[in-house]
Amino acid sequence: MVHTPIPNLPVSRRTTLGGLAAGTAFTLFGGSAAASDHGPFRHGVASGDPDATSVVLWTRLTTSGKVVLQCEVAHDQSFSRIVAKHEVVTGPEQDHTAKWLATGLEPGKTYYYRFMFDGKVSPVGRARTLPVGAVSRIGIALASCSNFAFGFFNAYEAIAHDPSVDFVLHTGDYIYEYGHGSWGDDIARTIGRRHDPAHEIVSLSDYRRRHAQYKSDVGSQAMHAAHTFMACWDDHESTNNPWTGGAQNHQPEREGDWVARRAASIQAYFEWMPVREPEWLSAPARSRMQFWRSYSFGDLATLATLETRHTARAEQADYAVLADKFDDRDEVARFRRERLEVPGRRMISAECEADLARSLAASVAGGQPWRLIGNAIPIARMDVPDLVALGVLPDPFAAQPPYSAAVLDNARVLAGKGRAGLPFYPDTWDGYPWARERLYDLSRKAGAADLIFLTGDSHSFWANRLSDAQGRPAGLELGTAGITSPGDFVESGFGDDLSRALDRAFAEHVPEVIWTDNMHQGYVRLDLAREQAEASFIAVDTVRDRDFRTSIVNRFRIAREGARIDFT
Questions:
Q1: Phi/psi zone of residue 471: left (φ > 0), alpha (ψ -120 to 50 degrees), beta?
Q2: Percentage of the chain exceeding pLDDT 90
Q3: Residue 373 maps to which CATH number?
Q4: Cβ atoms of 443 and 451 closer than 8 Å
Q5: Taking phi first (over 0 means left), then psi (-120 to 50 degrees means alpha), and beta for anything else, what does residue 33 get?
Q6: Stretch 90-118: mean pLDDT
Q7: Pairing between β-strand 228-231 and β-strand 167-170 as defined by DSSP bridges
Q8: Is residue 29's pLDDT more than 60?
Q9: Is 318 within a domain?
Q10: Among 113, 186, 281, 459, who pairs with 485 as Cys (CB 3.0-4.6 Å)?
Q11: Mean pLDDT in residue range 299-318
């Protein structure tokens, strides 16, 4: 059923709601002070990839040559109770990014950290270690799809000021690869957010510059300073729709070797993100490309992230091969048989599957009530209903279709997918049904057919009830809107009224979709307690201006009934 949204709860960016849910007061320095106030620390600070006794601390220096900087960790914001100090060496080989894995910390504790260089002090950041033992509550903010060109990262700033957030999970598209004249550039021109460099990024230098630009945003700096970060990547950290053998948005004749470009994107990611280096991983023989994690929150929950782009992904199916054949049942059937439903088309690697199975089994054996999957792309079945027959979408194949020339092709593709009953997104798990069933089977064998998937990529809010091919419950999915990236219906030019009608049609006619909203930008906050969970879908009212307000556009409670979880 569709749940009625709760009344809007406005929060102004000018109001700092300091403090964690645990009640620790904190003044946000990361995004509120001018970059010049902190000299060479122009890109702020960040913490991430925590476990119970350690956390990665990150910053970047605007300088030259090989340098040494200091890092301090303290129990208090004034640094009167310092618990650790460390010297960090950096230089051009790391693009002057600096990371330190601070170890020997206490579980479930809040710490404060800062870097110092040449008489200048960085913004103060707050970091948390993972708890052990009895845990009554955890708040996780789910974020995805922050395209600099489309607007200001106001949702990041809202996360920074959300007093119920303990950790941030980012499920990818942290940066975008596009250059001037590409997607979003028309908006970027009007608000002064054009991408740097001006061309599509390909080289290591390009990717470094793009990461630097994204971390110049004050909302991003505030979020990173306030909360410890957990992440997986999606496609745009490298380029649109990569797979093991290439990418949709990589043209070798113009952009060189795909393997070299992918390696450059991954190197820049590890330099600029607060994530552990491979040598710090517990398993041997891991490469940077094998980027997945498992986080345990005491006796309450386990969060496992997936790598869905580089280590195993088969080339995605492309609807372009159908062209004007959506009405041809034989061609559609052949497309399903030969492109979508081919056995063996992987999404995640065997190594990732094995690690995930172990994490889920350990969670079940330990009696944790919640198991979360950090999942870059939607996993729910979303075969498009016949929107024209339902009277929702005006017929774009009519003699005089009621669409502008710029919108007509988008309407025809959507209508065609609906007539054929094809998946909405062929690059999501819907385009890899064999792999999805394999994942569901893995979780069931681990005793964990009660997963909550935390999903990005689609630029829309989702609340989905999942099932396998036999109709057996497979868990729930919470999808987040983009931080700035627009929803598909709005971006297609359908207008607000039709976009809302399409949202309703998906909720009413797609069996696994409970509710969706592609009208907003924002994030999802998941509050986990022992007996139930609560998902709040939090939107910002604008990304085109620094001043904004937030509202909760919907809220769902999740409860357990035996071995099954469901929306209540």
A1: left
A2: 90
A3: 3.60.21.70
A4: yes
A5: beta
A6: 98
A7: parallel
A8: no
A9: yes
A10: 459
A11: 97
